[in-house]
């Protein structure tokens, strides 16, 4: 038996019966319902942050006040003498629900921003590693080019070869045999 035994399980994923955390079926539905509620709360918060919401809320309040002040006495449902208690309660209820919905939407946005920042950081690390690799490659190419012969050296070598070839092509002037006869 060696130091590392094959049956230790370190070389294979855990089986379903091991100490792995089991996911209950309700966990998935809880996550999806939380996600659905989160999207709904973001939509409400997004809607409450628009000028149209403020305009409509102002219009509803003005109609409410006008109706309960100038409307027929038997049709009024909120007394001006009591300071429009129902309107105050409705606006307080709206504000008490709006604040947590807005905070929930902000928390979800913070989570998305955190994930985006982490992805940006990882991308920046990869870009830095790629840039460093490319810089090393450029330096290696410069060093390789430095070892290559330059233009002047090649010209000088070509000239030397050309003169050598010309010397081989043009034999040395031999003594003229006709000159001996004369």
UniProtKB/TrEMBL annotation:
Keyword Coiled coil recorded = yes
* The UniProt record lists the keyword Iron-sulfur: no
Q: Where is this region: Disordered?
A: 1-34
Q: Where are the transmembrane segments?
A: 49-67, 79-104
User: Which stretches are annotated as coiled coil?
Assistant: 107-134
UniProt keywords, alphabetically? Coiled coil, Membrane, Transmembrane, Transmembrane helix
Pfam families for this protein: DUF1003 (PF06210)
Per UniProt, the ranges with Basic and acidic residues bias are 24-34
**InterPro entries (alphabetical):** DUF1003 (IPR010406)
Protein name, as recorded = DUF1003 domain-containing protein
